[in-house]
Amino acid sequence: MKRKLLSIAMLLLASAIHAQVGIGTTIPNKSAELTLLSKDKGLLIPNIPLESTTDQTTIVNGNVESLLVYATLKQGDIEPGFYYWDKTKWMRIVGDSDVVKIVINNFHEIITNEYVQNEIKQFFEISGGNVYYDGTKFEYIDENGDRHEINMQELVKAYETLTVLGYNATTGVLTYQDEHGNTVTVDVKGAVKSFETVTSVTSDATAGTITFKDEKGIDTVLDIKQLIELNETLTVLGYNATTGVLT
Predict the structure, then answer these.
(1) Is residue 109 part of a domain?
(2) Distance (Å, rounded) from C-alpha 216 to C-alpha 200?
(3) Domain residue limits at 241
(4) pTM of the model
(5) Could you read off the pLDDT of 197-210 as tens digits, one per residue?
(6) How do residues 121-147 score in pLDDT, each as one tens digit?
(7) 176 within 8 A of 228, measured Cβ to Cβ
(8) Does 100 map to a domain?
(9) How far apart are CA 240 and CA 68, in angstroms?
(10) Which of 16, 122, 124, 210 has the greatest number of CB atoms lying within 10 Å of its CB?
């Protein structure tokens, strides 16, 4: 009888031990198969030199789903860190520092994702004053929620600099006109002291300069481009060498 009771007790004890295992505690958590308790020690996950995220040979007995390891070396597409096996691939457990790198490396795929684009559009649509690009044009939303297209051509034109510099050697005329159609005249006689003895006039459209040569062979350079930039933005420029008038 005593032997039977002892056998039953041993079976019950073995069953209890098999149900929950506690290390560092005599009262393991009932929801866990294994409970670890320590004030100054941690759990060391096996360090494995995985060769790639598809490595199926390093673990000799085969990869089991949810198997957790710590990759120790950077090789292939493996970065040191924690990985778990997910049916066909080792999946990295990422941290905050990994997120930025992942976004940068996959930015094109992220920004072209339909779900992401919809989220961005919804954000801009409810935020007055924001500017967004839908792939063909720029628009902004006013405080009333109305959309307005930004005309990039007019915007560039409003800030463009001198685009046409023309000089007629026969008539000696150099003219310019601003974007608003206003004609501006400048007396060049005052800028060239030896105007009465000018023997040749040459222009450099690239540099935006006019060079006057007197009878002594001395050159006087008039920087038209700089003169214009100090006053306003121009598109057409002209100079009359006979009257000494810049228009």
Answers:
(1) no
(2) 11
(3) 177-246
(4) 0.41
(5) 555 556 665 666 66
(6) 766 555 555 666 666 666 766 667 777
(7) yes
(8) no
(9) 86
(10) 210
